[in-house]
Each structure stands twice: as C-alpha cells, then as structure tokens.
C-alpha cells in the first residue's frame, strides 16, 4: 500500500511572492495618488519597474516549493 503525503503548505505571511506583490501594489497605489516616484526616478526607470514585476513573480514561483494555506 502506498502512502500519499499531505501537500506542503505554509502560512500566507511566509510567502515571498505575496510580500513582493503587496509591496508593489502599495507603491503603485501611492504613485497614483502622490505622483512622487516618477519625478524622483531617472527617466524610463518607472516602466522598467512595471515590466520587472511579472519577471520577479515568475522567478519566485519557480523557487517556491510549498503552497500557501491559511
């Protein structure tokens, strides 16, 4: 008889992917209201940051080994 291992899960607050997404969401929301980042960042950097987020998410997804639970 073969035993089936329970899926590995971790609490949501230990998820690197969720923390990166939360930080990016907070920065994007602040930027829409304050308009400070685009003025401070060198020209063209803001679009690169927006492009980089999905790449970072994909990288985190590849290194993640456990799911997220409650």
Give the key terms.
9% strand; mainly alpha; 70 residues; two-stranded parallel ribbon
Fold and architecture overview:
With 70 residues, the chain is mainly alpha-helical. The protein has one domain. 60% of the residues lie in helices and 9% in strands. It has 3 helices and 2 strands. A two-stranded parallel ribbon has the order 1-2. The two termini are 31 Å apart. The model has no long low-confidence stretch (mean pLDDT 78).
Termini separation: 31 Å
What is Rg?
17 Å
**What's the main sheet like?**
2 strands, parallel
Portion of residues within helices: 55-70%
**Element-level helix/strand string:** EHHHE
Low confidence ranges: none
Domains (count): 1
Backbone structural class:
mainly alpha
Outline of the structure:
By secondary structure, the chain is mainly α. The protein has helices spanning 16-34, 37-40, 45-63; strands spanning 9-11, 67-69. The chain has a two-stranded parallel ribbon.
Secondary structure layout plus pairing:
Elements lengths: L8 E3 L4 H19 L2 H4 L4 H19 L3 E3 L1
Parallel strand pairs: 1-2
């Amino acid at each position: 008889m073969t035993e089936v291992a329970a899926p590995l899960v971790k609490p949501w607050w230990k998820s690197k992917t969720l923390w990166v997404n939360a930080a990016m969401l907070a920065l994007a929301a602040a930027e829409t209201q304050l308009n400070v980042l685009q003025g401070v960042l060198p020209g063209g950097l803001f679009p690169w940051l927006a492009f980089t987020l999905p790449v970072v998410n994909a990288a985190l997804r590849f290194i993640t080994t456990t799911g997220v639970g409650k």
